[in-house]
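Session log. Operator J.P. requested a structure for one protein chain; no other inputs attached. Running the standard single-chain path with token output.
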Amino acid sequence: MRRYWVKEDSFGEGKVTLRGEDFHHICEVCRRQIGHRFEVLRKGEAFLVELVARKKKEAEARIIERRPLPSLKPPFIHLALSVPRFSTMDKVVEKSVELGVYEVCPFFSDYSFVKDLKKIGGSRQKRWEKIVRSATEQTGRADLMPIQPPVSLEVLLDQINPSQGILGLFFYEGQGGMDLRQALEKVKEVSLKKDVYLFIGGEGGFSQREVSLLGQKGLEPISLGDQVLRVETACTATIAIIKYELGLI
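Structure written below.
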């Protein structure tokens, strides 16, 4: 059944009123007519509704039944990603929602495709939010995954405090890192109330300066093997493997 994420103020006593962007998307783009049934989502809940009335710019649906949506289980995965090409970022955002990533934290690094927040602009951020919403509707996830405003690697690292039970790992194609199996053992040791930050570089990986900086902050390098993976492949593979090993998939 088709699902749609709608604004919180759309809900009333036993009904949902569709206005603005929600009305346009559901009634005009998707052509939902009176008598059609579908699900609408808000944080933590899904509602089976039936469209019962429609005006020129507004429609009303009656709520038939409600069901809770399963929330993400800890440890929560935070994907810290050096800003890649925008088409790559689009793919990573979509797959992160599907795989249950808690949030995506873009950062600027020495080899980032874009190194200036002004070059991203509000339109790009809105596009990512639209991708999040679409993927949430497809998966039936209980929340809209946040995408934090991009910051420098240094600023992002300052937000991570290992003494608070946060585990940070970074994936590096150079020599000397532990393999993924060893890293998974560390992840399993993390308390169920803690967070795991996965740092993945952009198309150029991490510079030596950044590798030293990550090490100084207590993050351990992880190798994904001898082959160099695309950014979207590295993100999807590592998240899926970690979630599987933790029994979250």
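Operator note: The chain has two domains: 3-68, 76-245.
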